[in-house]
Amino acid sequence: ACDLTLDPNTAHTRLSLSAGNKQAKCDRDNQPYPDHPERFEYCEQVLCEESLTGRCYWEVEWSGWGHVAVAYKGISRK
């Protein structure tokens, strides 16, 4: 599996990052993240710091509802 780290500069303010930026949790309250041009503002999303190339996989655990997706770094944030 790929060891991925979530990028706090891209995290939507309703996402709380923990465990060394390896986990994200959706909260009702906004997090006090500083403004950043790469931050997602519309949907509760976060990008990884690492770029992926070739074949790779990752393992995900969640409870309740959730989505996992793959996107280019240039995805719209605003």
Automatic annotation (TrEMBL):
Which InterPro entries would you find in this protein's record? B30.2/SPRY (IPR001870), B30.2/SPRY_sf (IPR043136), ConA-like_dom_sf (IPR013320), E3_ubiq-ligase_TRIM/RNF (IPR051051), PRY (IPR006574)
CC annotations in GO:
cytoplasm
Q: Which residues form the B30.2/SPRY domain?
A: 1-78
Coiled coil (UniProt feature): none
- Stored Pfam families: PRY (PF13765)
Sorted UniProt keywords = Metal-binding, Zinc, Zinc-finger
Question: What would be an example GO MF term here?
Answer: zinc ion binding
Q: Which Gene3D superfamilies match?
A: 2.60.120.920
Which SUPFAM superfamilies is this protein grouped with? Concanavalin A-like lectins/glucanases
Q: Which protein are we looking at?
A: B30.2/SPRY domain-containing protein
The protein's organism comes out as Cirrhinus mrigala
